[in-house]
Amino acid sequence: MNPDPRPTAQPSRLQWAAYGVVGLLVGVVAVVLWARNRGLDLTDEGFYLQLYAHPEAVPPDALVFQYHRLVTLLDGPGQFGIVGYRVMGLVALLSGAAVLAVGVYKYVAAWLPEYRSGLPPVPVGTSLILLTGLLGYAWAPLTVSYNTLAAALIQLVIGLCLLALVMAKNGSRSGVRLLGVVCGALLALLFYVKFPTVVAVAAFATGVIFVTLRRRGWALVRYLLASALATGLLLSDGTGIGLFSASDMFGTAGIMADADYGPIRLMSLYVYGFLWEVFRTVVEDPVRILALVGLFGGVLLARTFESRRRPAILVSLAGATYLVAEIPSASYLDTVSTHRAVVGVFVALGLISLCLVAIRNNALTESRAGRWSPSGVRLATLIVTLLAIPLATALGSNSPILVSAMHGGAGYGAALVLALAATGRSARDTANLRYVLALPVIALLFAAQIGEGVVVDPYRLPTSRLEQTQAVADIPRLDGILLDEVSAELIRQSHSLVEAETGFQAGDNVFAFALLPGLVYSIDATAPGALWVLPAESGDQGEVCRSMRTVPNHLAATTMVIGNDDPTAELAECMAELIPGYPDSWQEVGQVPIVAGYGAGTGSGEALRVLVPVG
Predict the structure, then answer these.
(1) Which of 216, 323, 337 is nearest to 275 (CA)?
(2) What does pTM read for this prediction?
(3) CB-based contacts of 483: which residues, under 8 Å, 6+ apart?
(4) Distance (Å, rounded) from C-alpha 178 to C-alpha 466?
(5) CA 60, 65, 69: angle at the middle one, nearest 5?
(6) What distance in Å separates the CA atoms of residue 430 and residue 14, rounded to the nearest whole number?
(7) Both ends of the chain: CA-CA distance in Å?
(8) How far apart are CA 550 and CA 269, in angstroms?
(9) Out of 12, 100, 464, 573, which residue is the most buried by the measure of CB atoms under 10 Å away?
(10) Alpha-carbon distances, residue 160 vs 79, 103, 107, 213, 604 (angstroms)
(11) Residues 507-542: pLDDT tens digits?
């Protein structure tokens, strides 16, 4: 006989939602870790790997940002290897997103208690924020770069600032001072990692501080700015530490500005490229036209529904539109940039419009006079700040803004959690349940497409992640890395030719005037003078020549030249001046075919040519 006749309690739907969201996060992270040794992008990722392996060969004015100095400080030049750098990128993004999640929950509990009941349970909300923090790559683990480091640092700064405000609410002055100093030090690191983002991040953080503490916020802001200035000066080349070089960074920025790549020019390229890709997408595919019309029509229609249900309707529309617009495409390999632009549109538009509706329909209802209540102002300011995190991450990148913004996607998730708090005061609200489940569905779709071959900045792979199954034997740099047949054959043939026909030894200087720094990295060579040599048709090889002239000793020690394109007259003259005997006393020892379908960025030639000095 059962001594306790009471029925066993069954998990509520919201509890099941929590299990599902947490499980999805665990699944995505597990797949990322599974894929950590699969594939190798020989262009962008190869650039990062070569930069970390041989930072001493990088000309002082070759890079605007100095993230590589921070990375090599953590591991020593090139010690982590491909898998290690990918795991480092994953840990950086998840750590920043986790601190941001803690800060949001603690801030709501301390400063917005009336909205606390509308928050999803901690496992659900935290998992949502962590999932959106992985939107930049989903199934494709990224080698740590300036985008991943910038995203992690921004999220850490905002998250710790929120915790400092919680300390201020609790009366812990020592805690406020400590977190203010830490936030300032992180801002200094962010300045050297990607300086265009610092002003935006500092401005939004300061705004949240003053909106929350009013005049009392001056104390925290002073600690933050003083620490940022002191740390930045301490780490610069003007001190004995000299981790970063402010003079090199500003000098490179000046060169880029003179080359018409200043902020205004860069922003115009972003806007033009983004609008053109979206225009081309909808013109070439009528399904996407209908999807866009349906999305905007649905947004207008949602205004007629009860306020509490609008967020669920908007998120569902965004997810359905994303599904209709993207899944039917048969092949993404030739439309990578278009796909990236469209993904950015749907994710950003869906989440931002959702959060703005939450602000408009809820934050203004706290006062009988229809004015903004203090809690409403705090909520709106924080949501706007969180929505700005991805855009701040994208500043200074050479990819379209909404593409690079994906690296800082944890801001989208945190804003979504706050919008949820604003739209429903009951944690068991059915509309909120659908709302909670909608974003993981979008994230899962995004991840599935990555797994089927969609390439998100900066990866360029000729086949899907699932086809990266071939090990390349006898190449130490690629020990344990699995490649697709196309890339494996290219690297295998290149390595065999270099080993058989030249006197190459590990670490030798190899100049490559093709967009293949990853090939130089894979054969364990050093790229002297320039890691990134654009094709001749780009018209930008003059900048490469300027960088090469700053390290003539490295060029003089060049033992091999590889390329699948002919340099421009300017670059050829520069190489003849800096590389002894080139090209008169150099000979071609072999060619490696560029396998059809390898992908973008490999120059205009059909084969890699290997040249070495005679004798």
Answers:
(1) 337
(2) 0.82
(3) 39, 40, 468, 470, 471, 472, 491
(4) 46
(5) 70
(6) 9
(7) 95
(8) 29
(9) 100
(10) 31, 6, 10, 15, 49
(11) 888 888 766 788 888 888 888 877 777 776 666 677
